[in-house]
Every structure is written in structure tokens, then in C-alpha cells.
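Marked as duplicate of an earlier ticket. Keeping the data here for the record.
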Amino acid sequence: MSSALIDRARAVLAQPWTSNATLGLRLIVGATAVTIVVAFMGPSAVALRLGPRSSLMPPWYLPAGLVSLNEWVAVIALWLALAAGSIGLWVCYRAVDAGWRPNVRRLFVLGALLSTVTALVPPLTSADVLMYAAYGRLMVLGWNPYDIVPGSIIRQEYDPVMRWVEAPWQDTPSVYGPIASFSQWLAATLGGESMHQVVFWLQIFALVPFLVVGAIAVKLAHDDPAFQTRAVLFTVLNPIMIWSICAQAHNEPLTLVFAVAGLWFIRRNAWLAGVGIGLAGCVKVSLVYYGLAMVWGYRHQPRKVLQLCLAAAVTIGLGYGLFAPEALFAAARNTSYVSAGSWVEWLHALGTLTIGDAASRRVMSALGFIGLLVIGWMLSRVLPWVTAPGAPAGTDPRRDPLTITVRTAALLTAAWLITSPYTLSWYDLITWVPLALMAPNRLDVITMWRGTWLSLAYVTGRVIEFGPGVFVAGFIMRDVLCTAAQIAAIVWVVWWWRREGAEMPRLRLLRDSWRRFRGRSAQT
């Protein structure tokens, strides 16, 4: 039976439509158009309520009361759009592998246009942006968002911005670094007492870095049409990321733009690469994986390792030490979270019943860390070694700092996201960028798979009262199907590793690697 299924799958993959770039682009554009229309209809079960509009500035939507979008229509429309967009991405990906080489500038403009229009209508399904606005408002009023939660204020007095914050974020302190906090303060300052205007600036602070990340990725691909096309498809024309970043105004691009700038300098200047990753860490500490990848990329050049680390340490020390020392400790709160739809959700529910919630969370965190090590090892054995674009002809990929860095960043971030108890689709941007600079491999499709299901899961992610039917459908999508899909992603990596030889870590391998490193260090 399994062989029959494999034969049937191969027959489907052999059909011409699976690598038809025109079809893929139409699906991506159509899917994005649906999300824009749903948001433009105005507040609904999926579109956020932003309070009164005090100007004609974005986000734009129809006047209140003109259209009332049924929750079933909204949810199903977004589910279908996300599925279609993901299929479109997969089809375009296969088209590149089959030789499709479009005009990269036009392709980038198309992605930038779709991303920009998506960012000019109200955010969808995730209330995180309202939380960002509340943190900024707290700082404008002179409060510390690491110590004071928005709920502490709105339960005592009326505030025109914080009153629109949705549960559970009313009682959640900030976990973001000083640069992210600065962007929230700036948005609140520019937006004044209008949540509508504050959200607009937060959307811009997500959109612009997102476009810059895509542009740098294309430049890093240099004049290689295949890599440049991958860079566009995996960033600004990626329907999963347009949905997760632009349609929800998440601040992931603000984090990544500095790290990707660091990648730009990895072959040029270790000091500037260190400043880049240090600034990234001042937005979110999760960019430590890029820092580790950069250190590993310079492992043949100990002097550059030292320069990188010093520059990053000074940058992070100034950012946190001078401006927001509380932020470094606040980020530790994320380590105990378990998200709905993650691979451990069912285990956590069982653990809560048997050993209690707190103990279960600790066990899930331990499982996530062990999984990171195991899946990280497996990916390190199977990811291809192909020199990243821009290196001189004949460069050994195992000695090129950019190639080593992007490969290591891809495997570390993917291993973390695949096995983390708390994982969300917008986090995947940190994996898409290094994947764009690598040769096609199974991790591309695994990342599409998990990102698609996580996106589908959180269409009903807001903590509001849905009708019984939508509530049940959302539960099945998020807590059953998505969880199963995340488990399948882990199984997929294990199967890939097993198929490619199932190499186990050996003490002799580690010892030989250490001796080679010491020998190169002595020569340097």
C-alpha cells in the first residue's frame, strides 16, 4: 500500500502543472488579494478593531456598518487563500528547479507591491500588534512595559489606545529588546492617542524592514538568477510570510534586518558583521542562532571570530546595559510557553493532567532542547554543501564563511522551530533567508509545510467568542491537524536523515574535528 501511495505521489509530481510558474504566481496573487479584501471589509471575527479613525491615513477599510462579514465566510475564505498561496509557492519553487528564470526585478516589484498593499489594510487574526501599541503607549506615559502590564492601567483609568488591547495581552509584560521597544515608543509617539494611527506606524515598521531583508537577500544572491529567484520567492513574494508578517504586522523583520545586514558583511568585515548580529540581538534574543552560525562560519579564522564576538558583545552590552537591562531577563519568560498547534501540545495536555502545569512546561522545554540537538545533528548531516553565490570560482564551500554561516543558520533555526514547544509561522522568516542562499533541498518544502499549517491554525487564533461551529472547526484545525502536521515535520526530517545514511555522532569524529581546528588555529 505504501508503495502504491508513493507511485501515486510521483505521478502527481510529474504532471506539468506542478512546475507551471504562471499558475504559481496567479495562486500567490489571488491568495494575497483574498486576504486584502477580507481585511478591507473592516472589523470582523478575523480583522482587528482599531478604534475610531481620526484621519484618512491607513489602515484603510470600509466604513463601519457598511458590510458585516460572516465569520464562516471570513474563516473559510482565509483558509482557502492560505492553502492556494502555499500551493502557488510550491509550484513556483518547482518551476525554478525546472529552469524557470524570470526577470528578478519585476518579480521583486510584484512581491513588494503585494506586501505593501497587505500592510495598508487592518491587521488580521493576530492581536500582537495591539500589544506592541500598548507597550509603546506605556512608555509614552512614562511607565516601564517590562514591569507594568496594560491591564494595570486600563483597569484603573480610561486610555484611548490601551482600551483596544485584546486578551490575553492585557496582562502580559514585554519580552522585547531595546530596539523593538524603541520602535513601539516611536509608533505610539507618532500615532498619539489613536490606536488606528499607532497601528499604521507599526505596520510600516514591519513592512519596510521586510522589504529591506528581501532586497539584501537578492543582493547576496549576486548575479545568479536561480538564487535570486529563490531569494524573492522566499521573502517578499512568499505568501506565508506576506500573511504572517504584513497581514499581521509582526516585528520579525525588524529583528532580521540587522542580522541579514551582518550576513552581507560576513565576507567583508568581521567587525561590521558583529555589529549587525549585536543589533539583531537588541530586538530579540532568538537571533543568537545567527550569532552561533557566524562564529562557526569564521571557525577557520580565529582572529575574525574574536572580532565578531567583541563587536557583538559591545553592541549588545550597550543596547541592554544602557537602555533596557530588564529586557534581557524579560525574554526568559518565553522559555516556558507552549503554543497551540505545536508538536508537544498533546503531551503538554497529558502532562498537565498527571504532573501539573508548571512541571509539564519544564518537561516540554527539556524535550524542545533535546529535540533541537537531535534534529540539528540530523540536518547537519543531510543539508547540501553548495557554495553561496558571490564566492570566487573554485571556492571550497566548507571554507567559505558565508556558505558555512547560511547553512548553519538554516539548520539551527529550522531545528529550533521544528522542535520548539512555542512555535509560530512568522518566526520562520529567520529560516527562509538562509535557505534562499542554499541549493534546493527537502528543508525548503518542510518549511513550507509547517508554515502553511501554522498559518491555517491561527486564522481563528484571536481570543474572542466565535460561534460554536467555527470554534469547533478552529479547534480541529489548530489543535488536531496542525499539531499532527508539526509531528509529521519531525518525522520527515528523521526519514530524510535515515535515507541519507543515518550517520550518528561519534567521539572520534568530534576529536578529529577538534584537532583540525587546533591545527588551523596554530597556522593562523
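See parent ticket for discussion. The chain has 22 helices and no strands.
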